[in-house]
Amino acid sequence: MNDTITSITTPIGESSIGVIRISGKDTFPILSKCFKSKMPINSAKGNTVIYGRIYNPQNGALIDEVMVAVFRAPKSFTGEDTAEISAHGNPFILKEITGTLIAAGARIAKPGEFTQRAFLNGKIDLPRAEAINDIIRAHTSYARASALSRLEGVLSGALEDIHSSILDLIARIEVAIDHSDTDNEFEGYEDFLFRLNGIIAKIDKLLSTAQAGKILSSGLRLAIIGAPNTGKSSLMNTLLQEDRVIVSDMEGTTRDTVENELNIQGIPVRLIDTAGVRITDDPVENLGIKRTIDTIKSADLRIVLLDATRPFQDRDRQVLDTVAGLDNIIAVNKCDISQTKDNIKDLTKRFPEAIKISAMTGEGIGLIEKATYDFYFSFGVNPESDALIANIRQQNLLETTKVSLEKAIDTISQKMSEEFIAYEVRKARNSIEEILGKTTDDAVLDRIFSNFCIGK
């Protein structure tokens, strides 16, 4: 935290403008060694932009004409003295400017270190910091909207409300403990139980958003499954609108899972093509089938393909048995091929909810996309405004908070003293404070911020 750090913040590659950020207590003394302008950078006011030139202080050679945005502590993203240098977006120039700043006393920032300093300096809490990384990585409109909502504090507000309720409960329990030897009446076990159940209800409401939130952060895992040669790879290529996987009439062509990203009406999707499920003596194909079954179990949603060119078979039943009780979209493929009417009639009678499609012509693909969209919104959340749990760290800690509160309820049911209730409620406070970053240790912080881009 005592070092002054710098990094290129824009992607490497030729562009009209590239930006270099520098932050720390020596930001402006370091800049003054290589930046020349009519107004000395050391005396520039915060929230101003200064035009000037960057020179190599060792040989006096001009590196580039630049604009420097000046931010004075604490009114900056990191809470420290900060400058952002806008130079021509030539990778060679940007690297030379960065090298000049390092020679003048700065060091290269670690991934996410600017955001980590913003957190440590109290500019943002941990859920907001995590939201910044999610904004950078958001590939769809709903993913971006959810991350922006968290950056604006919607999730933090819900967590702070739980935290405040826990602190209030601890205070009431401690008053009861301090006056347990008097005749004064304070809140009793019934009041504690009422408040505990109220807090748990708030936690359950947040936990119910965990799957919807993680889908926006990591993508909805949508697996295409079916017996061999039902057109799984063709459907994947059609959904992606590109030839991503090999298509062949030979059974067993796909021997491993193939993943790709897809945006379905604002929902980020991880589309997975899988090996056909069947009994075979081929050990390599069997390995692919085992992975397919593992993928089926872990996916959020499955497209189960049936083949309209043949009657319903045992291997189709085997696939359906594998996904029984899971969330599925059933689709009858190859409906564009002539002489399939009888099979289509039989399959749609067996499965009235089935969607009739053709992976070759695109018939029914819009219905597949709509079913996927409807599945996401069946969670009953609005990603643009609701507080959503965004990752497994937040979910696990919130579940730990709930467990501690449930243990506190158990102590009440066993008519144990207030000290035992307070012990469990304090554990719950520690867990909720770890989500917010009030008590998170350095190792956890380093792991969180190491997933950020360098320069952010």
Order of helices and strands: EEHEEEEHEHHHHHHEHEEHEHEHEHHHH
Q: Terminal Cα separation, in Å?
A: 16 Å
Structural class: alpha/beta
**Strands, total number:** 13
CATH class of the largest domain: Alpha Beta
Number of domains: 3
Strand line-up of the largest beta sheet: 3-4-5-6-2-1-7
Query: Under the CATH scheme, which architecture of the largest domain would be assigned?
Result: 3-Layer(aba) Sandwich
Give the uncertain stretches in residue-range form: 245-255
Averaged pLDDT: 89
Q: What's the name of the CATH homologous superfamily of the largest domain?
A: P-loop containing nucleotide triphosphate hydrolases
Strand content: 15-25%
Q: What does the model show?
A:
The protein is α/β, with parallel strands linked by helices and 456 residues long. It has 3 domains: 5-120, 2-Layer Sandwich (Gyrase A, domain 2); 131-209 and 389-437, tRNA modification GTPase MnmE domain 2 (Four Helix Bundle (Hemerythrin (Met), subunit A), Up-down Bundle), CATH 1.20.120; 215-377, 3-Layer(aba) Sandwich (Rossmann fold), CATH 3.40.50. 46% of the residues lie in helices and 17% in strands. A 7-stranded mixed sheet has the order 3-4-5-6-2-1-7. Helix 4 packs antiparallel against helix 5 (141-151), helix 6 (154-178) runs antiparallel to helix 15 (418-436) and helix 14 packs antiparallel against helix 15 (418-436). The two termini are 16 Å apart. Mean pLDDT is 89; it is low at 245-255.
